[in-house]
Request: fold
Amino acid sequence: MLVLTRKPEQKIKIGSDIIITVLKVQGDQVSIGIEAPKDQQIVRLELLDPNRKTNERTQTPNE
Reply:
């Protein structure tokens, strides 16, 4: 996993056509914008796994 520190309005590019923008940081919440091709599906992970709780964070030892 790549971990980056970004400030509001800073961007991250993934591949040739996906751009993630940090819009706002407020307390422990971060608002992001995602620019991607229309045919690229973007889904929050907790919506794919009905057994996973919202805001649940899974960690392995030494992570």
